[in-house]
Amino acid sequence: MLDNLDLKYKAKKIKLVAFDVDGVMTDGSLTYLPDGSQIKTFNAKDGQGVVMLNKAGFLTAIITAKDSPVVIERAKTLGITKLYSGQTNKINALNSLVEEFKLDYSQIAYMGDDYPDLCVIKRVGLSCAPNDAIDEVKQNASFVSSYGGGKGAVREFCDFILFSNGISFDDLISK
């Protein structure tokens, strides 16, 4: 993991912040109802972090392996700029973001927790893992949250990016 000054330098370059869902925006639990539909529980404070990124002018994205109506609804609620679901190879979604928004990989931040996220974590400018991510992800992430997935990790990452860019809560409340 990088020291705090290196992390802040990397955070100042960020234009787009992307997230995995299961194990990052949720705690990774999968609850199935008898009809086969799923329940996912999201953390409101994590969501507020994403909303603040949007208000501050950052682009936001979700890159997830699963197709889920719950994730589509959550993305709409948070104002996510771009949703990539059903992504078995997440690097394809990352490359699409780079192309569509004319970004360099160093301008993208990503938070993931498991093997399918490693290809993105190794490529982006600033990467983060919840503290309950698998060891290999944590070893490759530039930042490991103090919190678990769905338990404040997303908010901590969002706050770090905002504060590193000199953006305060007061700046965002008036927007």
Keywords:
175 residues; alpha/beta; Rossmann fold; 6-stranded parallel β-sheet; two-stranded antiparallel sheet; 8 helices; 8 strands; 40% helix
Give your account of this protein's structure:
The protein is an alpha/beta fold. It has one domain: 3-Layer(aba) Sandwich (Rossmann fold), CATH 3.40.50. The chain is 40% helix and 15% strand. The protein is built from 8 helices and 8 strands. It has helices spanning 4-12, 44-55, 69-78, 90-101, 118-121, 135-140, 153-164, 169-173, and strands spanning 16-19, 31-32, 38-39, 59-63, 82-84, 108-111, 126-129, 143-144. It has a 6-stranded parallel β-sheet, sandwiched between helices. A two-stranded antiparallel ribbon has the order 2-3. β2 (31-32) and β3 (38-39) form a beta hairpin. α1 (4-12) crosses α7 and α2 (44-55) runs parallel beside α7. The radius of gyration is 15 Å and the shape is globular. The protein starts with a helix and ends with a helix. The model has no long low-confidence stretch (mean pLDDT 95).
What is the topology?
Blueprint: H1 4-12, E1 16-19, E2 31-32, E3 38-39, H2 44-55, E4 59-63, H3 69-78, E5 82-84, H4 90-101, E6 108-111, H5 118-121, E7 126-129, H6 135-140, E8 143-144, H7 153-164, H8 169-173
Parallel strand pairs: 1-4, 1-6, 4-5, 6-7, 7-8
Antiparallel strand pairs: 2-3
Helix pairs in contact: 1-7, 2-7
